[in-house]
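Example record used in the benchmark description.
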Amino acid sequence: MSSENAQVEYKSLRKAHGPRADLDDLAATCVCFANAQGGTLIIGIEDKESAPPPDQRIAEEVMSKVVNQLRSRTDCVGIAESQVLAHVNGGQYLSLRILPSSRTIATTSTGRVFIRIEDQCHPVTGDELTRLAAEKNAFQWELVEVRGARLADVADDTVHRFTAQIRGSKRVKAFVKEMNDVELLEHYGLATKGGLTNIGVLWLGTPAMRARIAYPLTVQYIVHDGLGNKVRKESWHDHRHDPRELILEVERQATELRYYHEFPQGLFRKQVMHYAPEVVRELLVNAVAHRKYTISGDIFIEVHPDRLEVTSPGALPLGVTEANILHQRLRRNPNLIRILHDLELMEGEGSGYDLIYELDSKDGKPFPEVHSGPDFTRVTQQSSVLDPALVQVLGYVAQHFELSQKNHIALGMVLRSAKLAATDLAKALQLTGDDRLRSYTERLLDQEIIRSQGQGKGTAYIINPQLIQAAKANVRPTLRTMEQHKLRALIEEDLKRHPDAQRVEIQERLPEVDVRDIQKALRSLVDSGNVVHGPGRKHRKYRLAENK
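Model output (structure tokens):
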């Protein structure tokens, strides 16, 4: 069975039946799913297990009682399917499918509100309730029929063009391709009983139909000079294009996004695009796919000499933040996202930012900065390369090693920091466990691309100096990578010249060294008796021991 995720939760049978039953906890889980994208609650699998006990049996009356009690403990929660299933090991478990509450906010019978974020339930209070209510309207928008927009009014060649694109995609399953045109349109939510939905009008409607949508898809492309003046502007407000055509048309017009840097690499020169085409595509498609279609506003693509800014209407969906966007998988417009994915315009769900991070790592560029305001989301991508020497090292790695996307991302983070603590790497990768971090670093360590220093929570990673030498890269040396015994010797030399120095004063004279490394070295010197310190903690002063 699959592991727990945003749409699957396992609970012990003891939670639902018996003296230790906690039906309020199960009810909260149902509310979580209903306020997100729906999900499946599996009852009968113990914590940290993936299968029920082989001898476990669940009577039908137990299932009925559990379902009835959950319904009485929740409001606006739809339990669509409840069934007792048998695992391959012979054990039984109870499966409940929870529908998303697309129009109303689901609550427990006591009035508490929860939402599913990744594989956890989180309470919703205060201002978040208002945001959640607004998200409900945004989620429902796609499938609302547009008055007066009928499938019969759409030109046959428009329908055939869309269905041909779907049937020609490698990502679409065979049974979908075998549907007739009307069945296929209904499958993707574009039409229902002869009428066009909002998303159907976006893809199939005439310009007049698209103009009748409350807030249609519109884009502005603006180029600024070094003084901030607008030197070029293109806009798409005529509603002539479906989302696919619009994305391709913007890419054709955006000539400023095809500039590049050149760097020497041996006898040749390496070209690094200001913005990799795949990065531009992801940023543009994300703006189209995740924008909020229930508020007014254009998508703005603004090109400055040093950066690209893509702004779309609507804040990030509730549960998605700048700190978890790399892994979070909440969809505001699931039907639109499914079409864009199936037409091969975007990566799989939740993997778009992984691709951007990977490409930025390979090119030695800063990672995108995401800022979510009350009614907008802006992503800023810098055009510059952090250090040409990094490009040379990364080029060497690409030629001589086969790495995964995760490996490239972690390597880019370590390389640009010279030395990076494991805790800081996990934070930058938005990870929560050591096991998940290993999937990013294990192959890099095995192939000796990076090295580790320290143990446990004090572990840090550096680039293997031999790799830099093999790449013939002019990487500037830094004290950040200094080994502890050398750092201790350097601090002793510093204390010879500056006795009775505080730790912050030592840090000022060694600004490149991580403060945690200085603290560790001072503790080691004090423990060995080479350094002594005065009383107190706040303004403690250090000096060499008299025998030194």
